[in-house]
Amino acid sequence: MEKVANWVSKLARRHASPVVRRRRTAALRGLEGLEGRALMTLTPIDLAGAMSSTPFALNGALYFTLNDDVHGDELWRSDGTADGTQLVADLRPGTYGSAPRNLTVSNGHIYFTANNGLTGLELYKSDGTAAGTTLVSDIRTGVGGSNPRDLVD
Question: What pTM was estimated for this model as a whole?
């Protein structure tokens, strides 16, 4: 979290407009010295859906589950920008989604339970990419699934 705060602070200083800097400097003349600050406007990312998990950070990105009404409830990642917010993997194509739950981080991977519509609720692993998101094992074959839960690191 501290790395993100430092990055945002550096970005804000780098992109502060010269006019704002001049005004700030003029306004502070004669006052005690203050640390350099910049005002940054943030544009919210419209996720166009409902988040169904608390976001968590892994390797510089935020991960969360979201139902965007196109893919259903699936795993997403974001670098904090609209362009950098994307679906990780569409495990159950269609509007129903795989409903990822029990998201847990271990050894640089995300482990979670999901239902792809074929194997039932089973354990998945992701490195944050579509190619790196896989079913760990079809523990209980068939559409009933093994229903794993209470995942811990």
Answer: 0.66
Beta bridge partners of 146: none
Report the DSSP beta bridge partners of residue 66: 51, 74
DSSP assignment of 83-150 equals: TTEEEEE-SSTTTTB---EEEEEETTEEEEEEE-SSS-EEEEEESSSSTT-EEEE-SSTTTTB-----
Instruction: Determine the pLDDT at residue 97.
Output: 94
CB 96 within 8 A of CB 72: yes
Q: Give the pLDDT score at 35.
A: 55
Q: What is the DSSP string of 54-88?
A: --EEETTEEEEEEE-SSS-EEEEEESSSSTTEEEE
Tens of pLDDT, residue by residue over 98-140, are 999 999 999 999 999 999 999 999 999 999 999 999 999 998 8
98 phi, psi to nearest 5 deg: -95, -5
The C-alpha atoms of residue 114 and residue 111 are separated, in whole angstroms, by 10
Question: Sign of the CA dihedral 46, 51, 53, 58?
Answer: negative
